[in-house]
Amino acid sequence: MLSKKIEEALNKQLNFEIESAHIYLAMSGYFGDLGLDGFKNFFDVQYEEELAHAKKFMNFIIEKGGRVNITGFESPKNDYESIMEVFKISLEHEREVTARIYDLVDLTKEEREHSTESFLQWFVDEQVEEEATFEDIINKLKLLDGVGTYLLDRELAERTLEEIAE
Ligand code: FEO
């Protein structure tokens, strides 16, 4: 059983994960337009990852006897000045996700909702990886010229969706 407060907070995060997916899908479209298929692949995978995160929240809410509530979403940004801008916005977005997950953990501690706190630990760990992924690419981009960008595009083409345990 979930308290109303926790149920609402989990639903808010569930919807934010879907909103995150939309943001990354728009970035995939931007790279598709530029003909950078590796960058596009990277964001296609990121889109799938965010949907998987959303499903994790959804399944947990149901498992705990709560009610899922899907809302509308803000239109994502579709146009960017540069490759670097896309990754800087992505990193800022992931930092926002981390802050929201931490707020959720704080709430579960206040409400003594131990099972939800345990569930959220997966996301606390995941966010370390999410932020590091974008930081790493930003650092590479700072060092690159045109040839380097081409090589990074080929590297990002290799990314696949890792199995995410339900
Ligand atoms: Fe679902 Fe990228 O955090």
TrEMBL record:
Compartment(s) where it occurs, according to its Swiss-Prot or TrEMBL record: Cytoplasm
Ranges of residues in domain Ferritin-like diiron: 1-145
Main location: cytoplasm
Pfam family, one: Ferritin
Any one GO CC term of the record: cytosol
Keyword entries, A-Z: Cytoplasm, Iron, Iron storage, Metal-binding, Oxidoreductase
One GO MF term: ferric iron binding
EC number assigned by the record: 1.16.3.2
Catalysed reaction, written as an equation: 4 Fe(2+) + O2 + 6 H2O = 4 iron(III) oxide-hydroxide + 12 H(+)
A biological-process GO annotation: iron ion transport
Record-listed Fe cation binding positions: E17, E50, H53, E94, Q127
Gene3D superfamilies: 1.20.1260.10
Function: Iron-storage protein.
Family designation: Belongs to the ferritin family. Prokaryotic subfamily.
Name by which UniProt lists this protein: Ferritin
Organism in which the protein naturally occurs: Haloplasma contractile SSD-17B
Gene behind the chain: ftnA
